[in-house]
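Hi C.,

You asked whether I'd gotten around to modeling the 222-residue construct. I have! Everything is below, sequence then structure, no commentary in between.
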Amino acid sequence: MEIMIVETSAVSSELLKQLIKEIIPGASVHEIIDSSLIDEVVDNGGVTPHVRHRMNTYFRFAEELGADIILNQCSSVGDVAARAQNTIQIPIVSIDKGMAVKAVQTGSRIGLVATVATTVEPSSNNILRTAKELGREITLTPYLADGAMDLLIKTGDKETHNKMVIGAVELAAKENDVVVLAQGSMVVLEPLLAHFETPVLLSPRIGIEYLKSVIDGLEKKI
C-alpha cells in the first residue's frame, strides 16, 4: 500500500510516519511537503486561489506517482482536499476526518478548539459534512484560543500557550458532550487532558486509525 502524505508543514511528519508504521505496518510512505502553503494561508486569513492550485497540483502528482491513497495533513486546507476528491481517482483522507466521525458519534453538542483562526472554518465544515454523511443532528460551537499559536511561534512560550488552550478546552468541556482539538500539532497537550470527564479528541492517532479503515476497505475490493 502506497501512502502519500501531502503536508503544509513538516511539524508532524515524524509523528505521522511513526503512527503509520505502528498502525499500518508494511505500508510504504512518501511525502510532499510545502511549508510556504500554511504561511500563505495564515498571512491571507484563509486559503487563496494560489494555495488551492498548488494543493490540487500536489494531489495530482501523488496520483501520477502511483500512490494508492493520499493523507492530507493540514486542517486549514481541509476544504480544498474535500473538493479535490471530485477530480482525483484515489481516496484523499484528511487527518481530522476520523476525529470528526468519532465526535459526531459521541455526542450532539460538539466544541471545536483552535489556536489559529484560519483552521476554524475548514475544521467546522469537516465536522458538519461528517454529521450530514452520518445522518446526525449536531450543534457545533468554536472556541478560539486567539493568539496562542502566534505567541508560541514568536516567543516559544509553551507554558502560556498551553494555559490559553487548556482554558478554552475547559470552557468547551463544560458546555458540550465532546471537545475536538482542531490542529494535529495540539497533540503536545495530550498529557494535560487526562483529567477532563468530557471526551477531548486529538486527530493524529484517530486519523491514522481511520486511514487504516479506508485502506482495509480498498484492499477488500481488490
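If it helps when you're writing up: The chain has two domains: 2-95+205-221, 97-202.

Thanks,
B.
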